[in-house]
Amino acid sequence: MELTIEEQYLYQALAELAYAITLADDDVSSTEIEMFRVAVQDTMGEAQSIALAHLERINKQPHHQRDLQASYAIALKLIDENKKALNRVLIRKFVYVLEKVASVMGVSEAERKIIDKFENDVLSIHAKKKSEIHQLTPEEANLYSTIGQLAYVVAKADNVLTKEEKDMFRKVVKEKLGEFDWLAEERFKVIDDMMILDVAHTYEHAIYLIKKNIKALTAEVIQKFQFVMEEVAKVSGISKEEAKWIDRFKNDVFEIYHHK
User: Fold this and answer.
1) Which of 44, 128, 180, 201 could form a disulfide with 48 if both were Cys (CB 3.0 to 4.6 A apart)?
2) Which residue, 86, 116, 131, sits at the end of a domain?
3) pTM, full prediction
4) 127 and 147 share one domain
5) How many domains does the chain divide into?
């Protein structure tokens, strides 16, 4: 799975945070470093190499340059600057890794304070990210997210989700949604990370969300839905299964819009 630049920086931030946890007791043990390796391997998939490489770089710093507050501040700065790729699933994974690292010697009071502070701080960053879509109504934002869900349905219709399809998805949502492309990208990535295989259920839930946010449904938004779905399907040639879901969507969304 190809990571965006923002995601890569977030995984570097995780390494900084884990390092801050190890510094909470004024020492960095090899056991803590090893637990970090195990935890990121459990949760981060291919992204583990980025976090591990960054941890190795900062762990080579001379002892006198190691500073808990500085490491924590660097991590929060990275997260804030790259919050476009931040979502609640990733936040939960980060907390899990930090708690695993802290558990090696027993979670100390200092470590617990850092983890709690991180959770509060990063949730504030996530809330800040959401507030920055003030140009959109809540209904519009929900529909833009749903574009990612329907694109996933089309991409997985033939049970194969290729790198080319993911790349095309990112390209077309950027073209159609501009600065709000992350709304669709976040939904797509969460569903992909959860490895949801029930395409029919994913589609029905998307239709439910469209009905729920019908207030913001316009002909322009429908065109954006269709364009993204069709462009993703075209990557490998539109298969019968992909065409089936696209046609079904056109019929369903027409009925919804017609009865608005």
Assistant:
1) 44
2) 131
3) 0.55
4) no
5) 2
Long-range contacts of 155-158 (CB under 8 A, 24+ apart): 155/232, 155/233, 156/197, 156/199, 156/202, 157/199, 157/233, 157/239, 157/241, 157/242, 157/244, 157/245, 158/236, 158/239, 158/241, 158/242
78 shares its domain with 160: no
Name the residue range of residue 150's domain: 138-258
Per-residue pLDDT of the chain (260 residues; tens, 9 = 90+): 577 888 888 888 888 888 777 777 656 677 877 887 788 877 777 778 888 888 778 777 765 566 778 888 888 999 998 888 888 888 888 888 888 877 876 777 877 888 888 888 998 888 777 666 557 888 998 999 999 999 999 988 877 788 888 888 988 898 888 878 888 998 898 888 877 678 899 999 999 999 999 999 999 999 999 999 999 989 878 888 889 999 999 999 999 998 87
Amino acid at 37: R
